[in-house]
# Entry
Amino acid sequence: MSILIIEDNAQLAANLYDYLAACGHNLDAAPDGLSGLHLASSKDYDAILLDWNLPRLDGLTVLRRLRRETKKKVPIIMLTARDQLADKIDGFEGGLDDYLVKPVALPEIEIRLRSLVSRLRQSAAPDDVLTVGDLYFDIRKVQVRRGERSIPITRTGRRLLEVLMRESPHVVSRARLERAAWGDIVPGNDLLRSHMYVLRRAVDIESEKPLLRTVPGVGYRICEDE
# Structure
């Protein structure tokens, strides 16, 4: 997942960042409400962790402005020391999806994030046809095309391509791609690299504009922009 952490406690923000990154997620962090609002407004995230007592703009104001001004439906979890019922009511009425009172164990935060995003994705009707630029993937018919060119693709390649296209333009971590391809039992010898090489040749070899890109040390992404 792509997650934004808006938290002014540097130690807590670092702990969240390190733990969630180790779980395979992509992270951005903001130390105050104003910069957090800017990031949340200008980029697309799968979820946001939001503190309440923030400098420059408090968390409730950030929440309300995000919901009112950007209309984004990104799941937002308030992570705060405020434990009063009135605060929780204000948060949920402002558009919160979940409310956690500090201190909270890091594994619980990660589980809440995964559960929240999973429910949201399952409630949305899945797209049978995915497109990125002139790359076309009909999931139901198992057809892949680049412009007018039909692309033959293996079963593993289809699994990788579907994840990359659904997450476009975001970076997908190596760990997530490996889970998509092989589940919990990942073969050794860096088999992902070999499959990505074959997939890149299939998608980009005859096209002037490459779509499949490697992000060193992180993973891969499919997008039109550099």
In short: The radius of gyration is 19 Å. Residues 106-123 form the longest helix (18 residues). The CA atoms of residues 136 and 222 lie 12 Å apart.
